[in-house]
Design a protein that fits this description.
577 residues; alpha+beta; Beta-Lactamase; Alpha-Beta Plaits; 4 domains; 5-stranded antiparallel beta sheet; 4-stranded antiparallel beta sheet; 50% helix; elongated
Length: 577
């Protein structure tokens, strides 16, 4: 089913984007072509590429003939993901072809080659004849084309291909049974008069004398530039990662096989993994995680040498192949990457999280070594490193997330410090254990960490939030819960973070817990947080005196707040005064 189409597609077939997205491709085909499409699609998936010409229906019901270039895109695990297709309207071309077929034979033979170019050369590749259509193809007159040498017409790579083909055909001439009327098709890059390039498909055969001896070449050239561009675009999509533009796993595995040869030894592999990416995705959203992936790709790409091959081979994993590189040099590359990562973290804005990477490296030294074993060892080293730094890296990510939250909201470190002092004090009065008091201190610091995933325009809105904005804001306890659960140090307070906006009467969120079903530490924090919000300067409400705040807390005891804790808190604060 369609997931995206460009404006050209919509203009060609007369549909709006809403009429196309989500629809099956077959819905736009004529009945006969729909059946053929169903039969051929499994073959297309198996081969990975398809060129075809068939009929598609315009919105007004008129048939359009299209040229279809399709390529299968695979996910990071090599499984079918989607198809990339380029369609070109060739209705007029088809109509012209049908007209030609209906014409008289003598006229058909004349008109068939209007756009294609007919030519002959001698055995030295000097052009002896070219049809007038050369002017349309190359922008030059017949006389000008006849004067140009072969070197002026074709790129160096194409010249090599052409000379190789002719040499092969001369070798075949030694066989007395060889077909004298055989032709070869070759695709070459040709220079136009203005030195721009086009791609030609050339049907080439020998021009022979009455004895059948080759005396030159003859052929027909057709412009296939558009098709080559489409093929190149599809080839790029098939070999590159959509998000980063780096090579993908499919291409990387081909390069591993290509470079696993003696003249590229020693061959080193570096495996890199982004620490805490799942936590970033869960807390800040996939867009922020994707941003970290893209920035990491840029960082790694900046550290490459000529000949190194970098690819994104998994969601959070990158691989680098280093041909002709021993292990010591590979480790120097690792150090350069680590230094670049550290510099990136120093220079980044406060509203984005630090990037933390785990590495592993190994080297194939001799021909007898198994490179797959080197790959496995590099992967094992990376995973060991990830386990070693896992706890500290998750803590670092959480600290970075908290800093980001403070940067994008009205919450302050001073607010957290005040909550910490008051919650610990009330915890002591209620004879809580030291573990519970420590948890209160951590909860005071991280209870609103889920706000990091809420839009800054909502967090900093000076007036009241509308209903849609409140729906978004009420997500932050659940987001905070997921963040806290990602680390063993913060997991013990995850439940308290989830519950700190529940109300005593069951009207809170997100689970509408009631009474003592709400965790004790969440009930304590709710009162202290409300008091601080009322008595400190906030953009979104009027500052109240402590006495006014006490009255509000007593008024809400039994509905919003635990009445017993509310009484203890008010008494504690009045005693303090």
């Amino acid at each position: 089913r369609f997931t995206a189409v460009n404006q050209q597609w919509l203009d060609t077939f007369g549909y709006s984007r809403g009429e196309v997205i989500g629809k099956w491709f077959g819905d736009f085909l004529s009945p006969i072509n729909r059946e053929v499409f169903n039969q051929n699609f499994p073959i297309f998936k198996a081969q990975g590429y398809k060129h075809a010409e068939f009929e598609v229906l315009h919105k007004n019901g008129n048939p359009l003939f299209i040229a279809f270039e399709g390529k299968i895109a695979y996910d990071l695990d090599g499984k079918f993901k989607q198809t990339h297709c380029i369609l070109k309207d060739i209705t007029k071309q088809k109509a012209a072809e049908n007209s030609l077929r209906l014409s008289e034979e003598k006229y058909r033979k004349i008109t068939e080659n209007i756009s294609d170019v007919v030519w002959t050369t001698d055995m030295n590749f000097k052009t002896t004849f070219v049809s007038p259509s050369i002017e349309l193809l190359t922008g030059e007159s017949v006389d000008a084309h006849l004067k140009r040498s072969l070197e002026d017409k074709f790129s160096p790579e194409s010249l090599i291909k052409l000379h190789t083909l002719i040499a092969e055909e001369f070798e075949k001439e030694k066989d007395p049974e060889i077909d004298k009327n055989r032709t070869r098709i070759i695709e070459l890059e040709h220079y136009r008069e203005d030195q721009t390039t086009i791609w030609l498909s050339m049907n080439v055969s020998f021009l022979r004398d009455e004895n059948g001896t080759p005396i030159g070449l003859q052929g027909i050239s057709r412009d296939i530039t558009e098709r080559k561009l489409m093929q190149d675009e599809l080839q790029y999509l098939n070999e590159h990662d959509d998000l980063t533009g780096l090579y993908n796993r499919r291409y990387f595995e081909k390069e591993m096989n290509r470079l696993d040869v003696e003249n590229q030894l020693p061959l080193s592999i570096i495996i890199i993994d982004i620490n805490g990416l799942k936590l970033i995705n869960d807390s800040l959203g996939r867009a922020e995680g994707d941003k970290m992936i893209v920035e990491t790709a840029k960082l790694l790409n900046s550290c490459l040498r000529k000949g190194d091959v970098l690819a994104r081979t998994g969601g959070d994993e990158f691989n680098i192949l280093l041909p002709k590189t021993n292990l010591d040099t590979a480790r120097e590359r690792l150090t350069a990457i680590q230094d670049s990562c550290g510099q990136y973290n120093l220079n980044k804005s406060n509203t984005s999280c630090n990037t933390s990477l785990s590495f592993g490296a190994h080297t194939k030294e001799t021909v007898s070594d198994d490179f797959q074993l080197s790959y496995k060892k590099a992967e094992d080293y990376m995973r060991q490193r990830k386990l070693l730094v896992g706890k500290s890296s998750r803590s670092a990510v959480i600290s970075s997330i908290k800093a980001t939250m403070l940067e994008k909201s009205f919450e302050t470190q001073e607010h957290e410090d005040r909550l910490s002092v008051l919650t610990k004090k009330i915890g002591s009065i209620m004879n809580l254990s030291q573990i519970e008091i420590n948890s209160l201190e951590l909860l005071s610091s991280l209870h609103d960490i889920g706000k990091v995933a809420i839009a800054e325009r909502i967090l900093k809105k000076p007036g009241k939030l509308n209903e849609d904005e409140w729906i978004e804001m009420r997500k932050h306890p659940e987001i905070g819960y997921r963040i806290a659960m990602s680390s063993s140090e913060t997991a013990p307070i995850a439940e308290y973070i989830l519950s700190h906006h529940e109300r005593w009467d069951g009207s809170g969120y997100p689970r509408k817990l009631k009474g003592t079903d709400i965790p004790l530490l969440s009930r304590i924090l709710a009162i202290v947080d409300a008091y601080d919000a009322m008595t400190e300067n906030r953009v979104y409400n009027e500052t109240r005196t402590p006495e006014e705040a006490f009255e509000e807390i007593k008024k809400c005891a039994g509905t919003q707040f635990d009445p017993e804790i509310a009484e203890i808190f008010v008494q504690m604060m009045k005693t303090k005064e």
